[in-house]
C-alpha cells in the first residue's frame, strides 16, 4: 500500500520496494508522467537477469484480444526476463480491468500505468494506493528544486556549465510541464553549441516563458474551434498553477489582435501586410495558424467574442470561487463560435 506524493517520487523511483509489481503514474504534468513511466520501465527491465522485455499496449491492442494484458503479465516467461508492460489508462485499461491482476497479486511481470490528474476517490488511483503490491506516484508541475536538478543533469550531460544568473532565469521560465521544460533546455543547449558556459544572454535569447506557451495553446485552440483541446489545455494549465483570470486575459489579448488584423483586411490591406505590421510580431511558427483564424472570423463575430470575454472577465473578478469554471466555459464558447463560422465564406 503505497501512495507516493510528488516530493517523494524521486526517492521512490531511485529505490523501489522489490514487492511492488504495479505502478500508476498520474497527475497534471503529462510530460512528467510519461518521462517517469518510461524511466521506470527501463530501470525495471535492467534489474533482472536476463533483462525484462519492454512492451507497450493501448486500448486498440485489447479491442481484439481483451485478455491480452492478463496473459502478458500473468504468464511466467520460459525464456528471457519478465514482461514490463506499459499502458495508458483509457476505455479498456481502467480500474475494473486491472483489479483482478492487482488484487490477486497475479503479476509475473511489471505493470506501469500512465493517467491524467486523478482525484483521491477515483477508482484507478484508489486501487493502486490500497493494493499491497502496487504504488501510485503523483506527478505535478516541477518545483524550483526539481527544475534545478533537471537543468543540472542536462547541462552536465551536454559537457558544459551554466552561470548562476542564467540558471536562476531559466528556472523562472520553466515549470508548467516537464516535456516543455526539457524541450526548452534542449533548445538552449543546441543554441550554445560547444560554448563552455551558458550565460544569461543565451537564456534570454532563446528560452520562452513556458507559462506563456501554455496560455498560447489555449488561445490558439479556442480561436481555431478545437473545443476538446481548448478544454484540455485549460484544465492542464490550471492544474499546473496557472490563474484562471490569466487565461481569460490571454484570450482577450489574442482576440484583440485578431480583431485588429481582421479590421485592417476589411479596410483593404492584404492579410500578409496586416500580419507583417503586428506588434509585437508573431513567431514564425504561429503565422499560418493565426492567418487561418483571421480568415475564419469576421470583424462582427470578433466583436461579439470580445464582448463575451469582457463579461467573463468581470464575472471572474466578482466571483473568484467560480473563476475556473468561467474560464473553461469561455474557452468552450469561443471554440463553438469558431466552429459555427467555419462553414461560411471568408475573405
TrEMBL record:
Q: Which GO terms describe its cellular component?
A: DNA polymerase III complex
Q: Which reaction does it catalyse?
A: DNA(n) + a 2'-deoxyribonucleoside 5'-triphosphate = DNA(n+1) + diphosphate
Is this entry keyworded Transferase? Answer: yes
Q: Which UniProt keywords apply?
A: DNA replication, DNA-directed DNA polymerase, Nucleotidyltransferase, Transferase
Matching PANTHER family, A to Z?
Answer: DNA POLYMERASE III SUBUNIT DELTA (PTHR34388)
Stated EC number for the protein is: 2.7.7.7
Listed name of the protein: DNA-directed DNA polymerase
* Stretches of the chain forming a coiled coil according to its record: none
Give a GO molecular function annotation for the protein: DNA-directed DNA polymerase activity
Q: Which InterPro entries match?
A: DNA_pol3_clamp-load_cplx_C, DNA_polIII_delta, P-loop_NTPase
Q: Which family does it belong to?
A: Belongs to the DNA polymerase HolA subunit family.
The Gene Ontology biological process terms listed for this entry are: DNA-templated DNA replication
Amino acid at each position: 500500500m503505497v501512495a507516493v506524493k510528488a516530493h517523494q517520487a524521486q526517492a521512490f523511483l531511485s529505490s523501489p520496494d522489490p514487492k511492488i509489481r504495479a505502478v500508476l503514474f498520474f497527475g497534471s504534468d503529462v510530460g512528467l508522467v510519461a518521462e517517469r513511466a518510461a524511466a521506470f520501465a527501463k530501470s525495471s527491465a535492467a534489474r533482472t537477469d536476463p533483462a525484462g522485455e519492454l512492451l507497450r499496449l493501448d486500448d486498440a491492442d485489447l479491442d481484439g484480444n481483451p485478455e491480452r494484458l492478463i496473459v502478458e503479465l500473468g504468464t511466467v516467461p520460459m525464456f528471457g526476463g519478465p514482461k514490463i508492460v506499459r499502458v495508458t489508462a483509457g476505455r479498456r485499461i481502467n480500474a475494473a480491468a486491472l483489479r483482478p491482476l492487482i488484487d490477486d497479486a497475479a503479476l509475473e511481470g511489471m505493470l506501469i500505468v500512465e493517467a491524467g490528474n486523478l482525484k483521491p476517490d477515483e477508482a484507478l488511483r484508489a486501487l493502486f494506493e490500497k493494493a499491497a503490491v502496487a504504488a501510485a506516484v503523483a506527478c505535478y508541475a516541477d518545483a524550483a528544486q526539481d527544475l534545478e536538478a533537471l537543468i543540472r543533469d542536462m547541462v552536465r550531460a551536454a559537457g558544459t556549465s551554466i552561470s548562476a544568473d542564467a540558471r536562476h532565469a531559466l528556472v523562472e521560465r520553466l515549470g508548467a510541464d516537464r516535456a516543455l521544460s526539457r524541450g526548452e533546455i534542449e533548445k538552449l543547449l543546441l543554441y550554445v553549441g560547444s560554448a563552455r558556459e551558458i550565460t544569461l544572454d543565451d537564456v534570454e535569447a532563446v528560452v520562452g516563458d513556458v507559462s506563456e506557451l501554455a496560455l498560447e495553446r489555449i488561445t490558439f485552440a479556442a480561436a481555431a474551434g478545437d473545443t476538446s483541446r481548448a478544454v484540455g489545455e485549460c484544465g492542464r494549465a490550471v492544474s499546473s498553477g496557472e490563474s484562471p483570470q490569466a487565461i481569460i486575459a490571454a484570450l482577450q489579448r489574442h482576440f484583440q489582435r485578431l480583431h485588429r488584423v481582421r479590421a485592417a483586411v476589411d479596410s483593404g490591406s492584404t492579410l500578409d501586410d496586416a500580419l507583417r505590421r503586428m506588434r509585437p510580431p508573431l513567431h514564425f511558427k504561429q503565422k499560418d495558424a493565426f492567418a487561418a483564424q483571421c480568415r475564419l472570423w469576421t470583424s462582427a463575430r470578433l466583436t461579439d467574442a470580445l464582448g463575451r470575454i469582457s463579461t467573463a472577465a468581470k464575472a471572474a473578478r466578482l466571483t473568484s470561487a467560480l473563476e475556473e469554471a468561467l474560464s473553461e466555459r469561455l474557452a468552450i464558447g469561443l471554440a463553438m463560435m469558431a466552429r459555427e463560422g467555419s462553414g461560411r465564406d471568408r475573405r
